[in-house]
Batch of 2 targets.
Target 1
Amino acid sequence: MISLQDKVAIVTGGSKGIGAAITRELASQGVKVAVNYNSSKESAEALVNEIKANGGDAIAVQADVSYSDQAKNLIEATKEAFGQVDILVNNAGITRDRSFKKLGEEDWKKVIDVNLHSVYNTTSAALTYLQASEGGRIINISSIIGQAGGFGQTNYSAAKAGMLGFTKSLALELARTGVTVNAICPGFIETEMVLAIPEDIREQIVSKIPTRRFGHAEEIARGVVFLCQDGAYITGQQLNINGGLYM
Ligand code: NAP
């Protein structure tokens, strides 16, 4: 198990939901965190203040990671502030659910850009720094929907499945450099994204989850810390944290 004290992480979409839980969990291990946000400035700044009040270190960095120039600025701002980049968590994501017949090109492209294209943008900008780190980590927050599909989610499912292919291929390419590349596939986790699902549908979903409950964002965050601390021999994998919904 390696110590994460004074490592540097970037968490895209790190100020809310699963991303905020990942930020907090990493900070509690002594990691300095760049909390990326797109529109949620207030929650990013509040989280940075909270981490600093607890004796940690963090910065908030605005960037829409679906644009390569903004993703590059995020990585460079982190390097400038903390001198290194050891951990990249690609967590930023959106849904725009529509049945395929009603899915316009704009909603297709937007979901692919934010969920998948962003992963290319941040990873390519951070790669040199991650390779310079002792034990670089790339962790892609994919989804059970990328594995099992989801009604009305062709765009999201394609993006999340794309992350899994990306993860395995890059893991092969980087294995000898010491940088590991893994994906976490959450099931249904209680965040704004899931609370946006109508209540009757949510009840139906819970009734199908073997553990009969939604997951907590902290349960995903602890998976991230595990992969960072204990994951030197784990690469190209999908860590399913889903209450047994997909096996
Ligand atoms: P959430 O509460 O809606 O948060 C989404 C995060 O993504 C926000 O911090 C948001 O930041 C950020 N984001 C969106 N567009 C962005 C962009 N263009 N550039 C930078 N950041 C952007 O969602 P969540 O449930 O925590 O989901 C986090 C990740 O887990 C997503 O990738 C999601 O697909 C995945 N996931 C979630 C579940 C679930 O059940 N909740 C299940 C499987 C996978 P701003 O608010 O600043 O825009």
Target 2
Amino acid sequence: MAAGVTTKVALAGFRRMLGADAVLTDPEVTAPYLTDHRKLYEGTALAVLRPGSVGEVSELLAFCNGTGIGVVPQGGNTGYCGGATPDDSGRQVVLSLARLARLRRIDAANYSMVAEAGCILANLQREAEAADRFFPLSLGSEGSCQIGGNLSTNAGGLNVLRYGMTRELVLGLEVVLADGRVLSTLGELRKDNTGYDLKSLFIGAEGTLGVITAASLKLLPRPRAIATAFVAVRGVAAAVDLLGLLREASGDRVSSFELIPHVAVDLTIRHVPGIAQPLAGEYPWYVLCELSSARTADALDGMLEDALRDAMDGGLLDDAALAQNERQRAAFWRLRESIPEAQRIEGPSLKHDVALPIGKLPRFVEEAAAWIAAHVPDAVLVAYGHVGDGNLHFNVNARAGADPLRFVARADEVQRVVHDLVASFGGSVSAEHGIGRLKVDELARYAPPVELELMRAVKRAFDPNGIMNPGKVLKTQ
Ligand code: FAD
Ligand code: MLT
Ligand code: ZN
């Protein structure tokens, strides 16, 4: 029984609003919606609801608000922090945005498009390309995550260095508020200084303030010249120096700069078919870097080659392979994007999605790696990620043969040490994956009290009955 209404009445209400086919209750059908990608959480729900229009979302939220039913928005369910999974009270519904998947319009002249929340990210990239434009958001999960989920987590990914996080790609949003009212800021303006920037509050709110139903998004000129290299660097400090060198030498045309340790290359080769060693020799650290330009005439290959030669002369790297064609470039990227999957197949992993000022990364890695080596002997460190953004996935995998339960039991202890160290360097304990349910206590621990107070005030203002994704991001009072 949901607070204020029986389950029977709630289900009858949902069926009346959406039609019976859009109200899922069969456990076999609902199961994939009730657990998260990492299988950290499993919940129950009154029902999984699949509205087909903004009007239906509005009607549903008004009903849930009046009856105290918690609403858990869900996109592609690829999130890493359990934000899209209901609790086990049975008093929440999962609201899937999958059927709101229409590209409403694309305006090449305005370099913008308006897409519904349920659009799969890879489809939007393709639509932009078909209009001779570029939508730069790119993540390993792009074949299944939805733009509504990307907005709600303020996703980062592989091109942040040049184009920014999801937030920076947004011109406007359409949001259904907790009480069912629709807030539309779907304008396609680049300039609009009319009061508080309300849309910004919903970006990264992980469904705790309202349901995003559509977004007006920025497009860019398509990259027409691209140069990509897989480089063996002499450590993390050398990678940081190489980034500076490349930014200078290329006139700031670096669009991706990803750090990859040898252990991650090894994992992908062992677990993902078709992945090969990118260089003849083996080295402890690599960087996958890419320069891009919207000018066909930019000779980026030569520029990258010259810069890498200078870097080699300066003792920053040992070897490098420039992608000679699109196939080779795709192979480099496939290796990088397969790391999370390879890690998952390898076994349990303690994930830490941290950000630091770039210059502090080498010392952080040195100190954190030394602690892991000394205190978690059954661990293999797989620290990789978007170093160009100061974002490292400081993941700790169980060594082959380790007892998985004993290993995972140390998660809190390891997290405390890693996060305390991150905080001491002025870093963030969630760079791009959000808070969800997983890091609620971490946010409460590391965020300044005034920030938490303001966040709670915002939550109360937008969702006074506390129906929007209860228990996520902020501790329930
Ligand atoms: P979901 O997982 O369904 O939901 C995420 C959160 O958003 C939940 O709190 C949910 O309630 C809320 N939500 C979803 N849709 C809406 C909506 N319409 N309105 C309001 N709230 C909503 N993340 C990165 O940032 N960078 C990466 O490089 C990256 N790489 C990844 C690689 C792999 C292989 C995988 C599996 C994941 C990766 N992720 C990455 C994490 C994940 O893909 C992103 O967080 C993504 O943005 C989540 O989108 P989703 O549609 O799957 O959202
Ligand atoms: C990535 O960049 O591959 C993901 O954000 C990190 C992960 O899957 O752990
Ligand atoms: Zn990432």
